[in-house]
Design brief:
alpha+beta, elongated, binds zinc ion
Length: 113
Amino acid sequence: MYCPECQIEFRDGFTECSDCKVPLLPGKPQPSAVSEFDTNLDLVVVFETDDPIALAFAKGALEDAGIPFFVFNEISTLVNDIDPMLHKWFRIQVACDREAAARGLITPPPEPG
Ligand SMILES: [Zn+2]
């Protein structure tokens, strides 16, 4: 069983997606949402952060909207271990035809304090 909206697969016994409130369909998720990355669409960076919480927030917004995305880590864990002052820098990229929609979804979290 899977949700036709968000393409999440559910175990047997579920009849409705808890997120989208739509009836589940039998079988496996359609590959369409993923296959967009099999094309030669240009990817654009829509979000950059060194804050894992902000990253999770942005990813959640994109996932809710069903927008496929890539996340890149600029600095490896190895470097992070050598110099704790160096933060990882995350980048979220989406296909260029999703850029406007993605940017509209991702709003920077409020400044701490
Ligand atoms: Zn769903």
